[in-house]
Amino acid sequence: MPVREWCASAASALAKAVPEGDLAAGLLAAFDERIGADATAAVRACAVPGEDGGGEDSAGDPFAGMSDSFLYVPRDGLLEAVARCWASAFKAEAVRYRALRGVDPARVRVAVGVQRMVLGTRSFVAFTRDPRDGSRHHVIAAAHGIGEGVVQEKADVDHFFVDPKTGTVRAEVVAKRRMVGPPADGETDPRVTEVPEELRDVPVLTDDQAQEVADLAARVEERFGCPQDIEGTFTPDGAVHLVQARPLAGEGPEAGPRVLWGNHNVTESFPGVSGALTYSQARMFYELAFTDLYRRMGVPERRLRANAHRLPRMVGHLDGRVYYRLDDWQELHGQLPVFDLVRAGWEEGMGITGDARGHRRRPRARAAAALLPTAWHAAGHRLATARLLRWWDGLMEEVHGPAAPPLAERSPDELIALYRRVWAEVARRWGVTLANGLYGLLVMRAGTALLRRWAGAGPELLPGLLCGGRENRSLAAARAAIALAERAAAIPELKAALLAADAGDPGAADQSTGAERLRAVWADIAAGRYGSPMAAAARGYLRRYGDRGMHDLKLDEPTPRQRPWAVAATIAPFVRQGATVAGNRAAEARAAADSRRRLRAACRDPLRRAVLTGLLSPMRWFVRTREDTRFIRTQLFGLSREVLWRLGGHLAEAGMLDDPMDVHDLTVEEVIGAFDGTLPGTDLRGIAAVRRAERERDRVAPPPPALLSAPAGHRLAAALRDVRPAGSARDGAGAEPDPDAPGVLRGLGSSGGTVRGRAKVVLDPGIAPADCAGRILVARETDPGWLPLMITASGLVVERGTLLSHTAVTGRLLGVPAAVAVGGAVGRIPDGAWIELDGRAGTVRILDAPPER
């Protein structure tokens, strides 16, 4: 007898075995007691282990989706539903599945669970581990309506990614049109309906609700002691109900070493997406500066050599964003015995939490003993700082002084020579600025500890106490802008022009943009329309402070030195506020006086107060030095920007770039190599175009989390695609193909691996499994009935689905690459076409020709 006929016969016989007698009476009595005679129930089948231990829902041998469930079952339908659950053990796909898993197809035990139905309005499936790589991230798929919409891929689904360490929630939201709700009157099956208009574009779950689901999943994992796959629903009153839980199928240990990355601190300097020019300059800066720091702090040369490979990779470029490679930072800083005394503060500043914190610590006594050699190295710190600032001021006079030839008049060779000379000096001097941070952190820690102990005050008192003393360079830059605004406000015509041009002025007479109006105002200032003293003051401000601006360490962002009219935008708000330098100084003095008064009131002991006051002097010096060196760092990157942009202009003139600003997508080595003759190849235009397209995609895509763990080595890029799912928005059928990559469709990678083969577009699963043998199956959606086809296929591409859907789970179980939510796959991929599927990235590439064998 053919398998399908044998299965149908066995299922039919079991379906007729409706419970009767004492069993029936017991079931109905339990229904009345637990469900309610007038309520409805969910009746679910589940294969349970036999004597040999085989059965459903073990982590290594899941049978998910192979048994039937029935919803909204009334009391008078209970007994029949139980029999139908038993019968589902012999569905053809369930028998084939057991054969595939090496279980006797004719032997199975089925238990039936009966649950009270609740009116779920939002439902979810959640994994306690990322099902693609086993990493510790909770993944939630949620849809409006009941859970069948998520499980059977009949609803449009939002995904939520919850980091259990930080509680960070990332949502990938689609336009939701379909949901599954209760059956219509007189029917028994749930029905697909439309999502109300007001709910279509908002996330199914709030961040708090996603966190609530993640917490529930974590408690279930803790209860059962292994990663879990749970289903649940929210009722209209906001209560969450757990429907079922099972061990996570296909979850394995996190293979190989992992690398910890974070950008909690670095976003202050390099926010958002940065081009190759910015990243390569930042990478060189960190390598040179920290090498000099470790030498200054007495790290032996042999240890520096042993860790030399770590220095160039202190920062990485992940999805276009600058990240710290925290494992290397901890290892490199760990070379400093005194580091353990400040590790906690450093980790807090870097956003390192939980298990990511460093655990390899020296004994406290040994760390304290390192204070003496640290003090020895610190003895010459003030002198070294003075030398650094003196050297830098001389360089700025040479480059931007009144007698200096403009950079625009220098040849490429002269520009490159200047750039190399500056960075050679940085390599042997810049460690002073980092040592200042370390010494300052030690002194700050001592000062805050004494404040807490003697004055009962926290660090909130410190800012006021640190006010006063010599003005630092960052503050001087701010006050210089205020002074320029004061001068402008004293000229009535200029004041009126600035107020009218300010983008915040609602009464502007003309309709031009604020930027255009400010540009015109600056042109009038520079041309001397408001007097030569004002023009000279503006030029002096630009010469001294032209590198200070928003994102001034990013070489792909202009500063006032490249966009002089930005000075007008800087001073316009001060003019509107009526700000004055005297008023700013008075506010600082009031803050200092208030803090000193609070200190006297909190610390009555004059001796202790004298000690605290004595500590404040070096603390002020370290803070002032920090701000001074931060300002000259701005100027360092400003000079580098000016040189490299001008070199980009020369490359464009030579026809090697289409536009001077394409230099943003080249590395420093490539730019200089183009002039030195050390550049491998000559297609700078092509390199810049590829990176520009990548940068634009990164700019619109959801960013990775601030703290993430990813596999080391060549698996890093793929892991990042898992951490940040491909695509920034999807409609109900998946992501639209990337317009920058013809022939490429994008979805959610759900089962890793890459395969090339011919596509088999399937609209009806009734075809022979042999037709899919060795082919990449392409479909709109699948369900357990597709299993015979999926077993023979070499890859799976589905228009609908989630990371938790049947297609995704089955692909991981069978070990074949799979991608779900691939928008337009059936219409875009011709049957029989050669395609390449990357199941981790979620991409499908249509090939022009068969792949080479």
Structural overview:
- Helix 1 (3-15) packs antiparallel against helix 3, helix 17 packs across helix 21 and helix 18 (492-501) crosses helix 21.
- The protein has 29 helices and 23 strands.
- Residues 251-255, 504-511 and 721-740 have low confidence and may be disordered.
- Helix 27 (787-792) links the parallel strand 19 (776-779) and strand 20.
- Among the domains are: 1-117, ATP-grasp fold, A domain (Dna Ligase, domain 1, 2-Layer Sandwich); 119-256, 2-Layer Sandwich (D-amino Acid Aminotransferase, Chain A, domain 1); 473-589, no CATH class; 719-846, Phosphohistidine domain (Glucose Oxidase, domain 1), CATH 3.50.30.
- By secondary structure, the protein is an alpha+beta fold.
- It is elongated, with a radius of gyration of 34 Å.
- An eight-stranded mixed sheet has the order 16-23-22-18-19-20-21-17, with helices on one face. Strands 7-6-5-4-10-11 form a six-stranded antiparallel sheet.
Could you give a short description of this structure?
This is Phosphoenolpyruvate synthase. The protein is of the alpha+beta class and 853 residues long.
